[in-house]
């Protein structure tokens, strides 16, 4: 990611990582398989408790869509002055899109859309999630995107707290809770969040 001047390393005390960028056409199958298993481990219960339901084949297709891009974090160890790049511990998957607005002219806005951010258990509460999101947003700014957006289950209160209270995301104007008749809001178990870039 040096081509846009963003840092590729994140360090916190003795927790050191390197972040690698992959368009979907270059992400190794083993890494994509690892990403799917991490999503399943972290979020399958939220899908199963929602109206969407869990569908493994749909999730695998989403991870392989032509416009998908990945930021994958790996832990770095120094042993006898040798740098060893370890296993993956977290990732963001995103796409560049045009998203709807509530404007009367049916206009759309340039958006970097975060489809997934997932961390392994040992990588949490170290600032890595914030670093990955900030890096993704930096890529969006570099390419002229006006918004960063994502979808989160209402039941996943930890994620909502992270996005809204830590990263500054807000409920977007096209989220069901903002644009659907109040009588039907309970039919929707997710929020669409956004942040101006």
From TrEMBL:
Localisation: Cytoplasm; Nucleus
Catalytic activity: N-terminal L-seryl-[histone H4] + acetyl-CoA = N-terminal N(alpha)-acetyl-L-seryl-[histone H4] + CoA + H(+); N-terminal L-seryl-[histone H2A] + acetyl-CoA = N-terminal N(alpha)-acetyl-L-seryl-[histone H2A] + CoA + H(+)
Pfam families in the cross-refs: Acetyltransf_1
PROSITE patterns: GNAT
First-tier enzyme category under EC: transferase
Major location (coarse): cytoplasm
SUPFAM superfamilies per the UniProt record, alphabetical: Acyl-CoA N-acyltransferases (Nat)
This protein's record includes keyword Nucleotide-binding: no
Protein name: N-alpha-acetyltransferase 40
Gene3D superfamilies, alphabetized: 3.40.630.30
Species name: Gigaspora margarita
């Amino acid at each position: 990611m040096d081509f846009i001047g963003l840092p590729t390393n994140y360090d916190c005390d003795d927790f050191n990582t390197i972040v690698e960028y992959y368009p979907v056409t270059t992400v190794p199958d083993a890494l994509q398989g690892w990403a799917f298993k991490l999503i399943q481990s972290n979020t399958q219960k939220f899908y199963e408790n929602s109206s969407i339901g869990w569908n493994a084949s749909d999730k695998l297709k989403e991870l392989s869509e032509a416009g998908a891009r990945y930021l994958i974090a790996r832990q770095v160890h120094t042993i006898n002055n040798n740098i060893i790049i370890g296993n993956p511990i977290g990732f963001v998957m995103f796409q560049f899109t045009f998203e709807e607005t509530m404007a009367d002219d049916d206009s759309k806005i340039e958006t970097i859309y975060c489809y997934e951010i997932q961390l392994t258990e040992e990588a949490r509460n170290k600032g890595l999630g914030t670093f990955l999101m900030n890096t993704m947003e930096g890529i969006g700014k570099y390419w002229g995107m006006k918004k960063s957006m994502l979808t989160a289950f209402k039941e996943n209160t930890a994620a909502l707290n992270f996005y809204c209270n830590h990263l500054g995301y807000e409920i977007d104007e096209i989220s069901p809770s903002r644009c659907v008749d109040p009588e039907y809001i309970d039919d929707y178990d997710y929020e669409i969040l956004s942040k101006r870039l």
